[in-house]
Each structure stands twice: as C-alpha cells, then as structure tokens.
UDP-N-acetylenolpyruvoylglucosamine reductase
Amino acid sequence: MEKNEVYLDLLKMVASEEQVKIDEKLSTYTFTRTGGKADLFVLPKTYEEVGQIVAYAGTHHLPLTILGKGSNLIVRDGGIRGIVVNCELLNEIRCEGKTIIAQSGASIIDVSRFALAQHLTGLEFACGIPGSVGGALFMNAGAYGGETADVLYSAVVVDKLGNVLNLDKNALQMGYRHSAISQNGYLALEGTFTLSEGDPQKIKAEMDRLTELRELKQPLEFPSCGSVFKRPPGHFAGKLIQDSGLQGTRIGGVEVSTKHAGFMVNVDNGTASDYIQLIRHVQKTVKKKFNVDLETEVRIIGEEPES
C-alpha cells in the first residue's frame, strides 16, 4: 500500500490529525538522540484506537513497531518502515487502595513518585529508571535489587490481532529482562502494581539515596541508551569492559563512558551506526580477553541507511 493511502486510513481511526505523522524523525524520541525516520508515526489516545491500529497493520501485512520513551533503544539510521505506535498520550496513573494502575505511556519514575505521594512502598527501585510503564512491563525493568515483577499484579495488553487481553502475573512470565509481552509481540496498555503501606519519610529517603547513587555512578550529562549489556552469569558487564581497558574508547561520536563502563554516551553528534559499531567492538574485545559473551540489553531496531 502507498504511504499516503495508509496515512488516510489511520486518520479515520484516531481523534485528530495531530496523532498521525509522516516521515517523523525518531531521534526526537530516543534517549541517544539518534535514529532515522518513521514512515508513519501514530499517537493513540484510547485503547480502542490502539486495537484498531494493530488489527489494521495485521490485516494489511504492514510492519508495526512499538516505541516507548526510547530509553533503552537504538533506532538504526535508516529509520523504521511501516507504522510506529507511541503510547505517550496514554499516561494516566490512578490509585485504588494499595494498588496503582498506570497506563503504558506514563513514566515509571512518575509512577514511583505517585506511589510516594500515596504513602505506598515497593516502587522505590524505579525512581531513576528513565522509561515508560510499557517499557518496564516489556523487559521487566529493574534497578538496585528491585524489578517490575516484584510488585506487578497484572497487565492489559493488545495481541497481534488487536484483541485486548488482561493477563495475570503468571501469564506474563516475567524473567530477567524478559516477559511474555516481548516474547509474543504484545503491546502493553497498562500495568497494575500491588504495593504496601509505608512511612513516606522512609520511602522518600530511600528514593533520595538511590537517586544520589545513580547521579554519582551514571553519565547522566550525556545522551545514552542506558545500560547496554545484560549481566553475564557470574560477572558484571561494566567490570569486564573496564578491565578490558575500553573506557574512553570512541567510534565516531559515541564513547564508552569513563564514568561507568556499562554505558555508551553520545558525546559528539554520534549516530546509531556509531553505537552499533562500538557495541560490536566491545563484545569482540571482552570475548577475546575473558571468553565471556556480552548480550545486549538495549534493543536495536530499524533499517540500515541506504548506501
């Protein structure tokens, strides 16, 4: 189908023209500030719109990509073909007793702050994770000894046919940086978190402590894709990279952080290709020196640029 034809079809499914964009620059939406263009970029406002868009893409055999806050993501410089769905307009957070229900476009940091305001404990670990609720559900995001699965009760998702499903924690199959959402190609719409009553002063103190740790250890002053590699069994990725003498190594405008070896930062107008080349170089070097395979935690999606 022609791009303009799909654009017109998508306009019929949403409430306003501002929700559908052609050739949208994805570098605007990624934490690395890199990435090419999306053929068609859609910002749904309701679950019904999401379901219709997903079903439409399936019926017409169009590629469909879900883009969260772009915090643990590299979009290749050639961009993304087909339809890209961004749920940032689905960002409601509400409380029912000791339960918080958050839509997928809400920031997980905002959810942790909302929990504090409700005097609820359990989400302190998420106070510095720069992603969306949808992203946290997708990859079972975690930090400082906590992870999404610890407090998750259920999630609402859309399957590949556009059906809205309510899945309990067992059905979500949460593992280390893994879930049934990522495995089955679902699109997360909301998560329900079961928390406990807590002392707001103690909750805030813990969040302040974790924020200070993050600011001390992580290179927040530069654009980055967050933690690049998963933790290898029996090792720490950052320590392996550091011991390989790779800190400060640069390809193009992207550098292995001198502050934390597990991060790669965009220090000088780097590209997605710079990131990918540096990732491959680090993997090859660590494998040669320590015989350890580093698996990427960051997702790499999209097309290579045309030569």
Observations:
- The two ends are 25 Å apart (CA to CA).
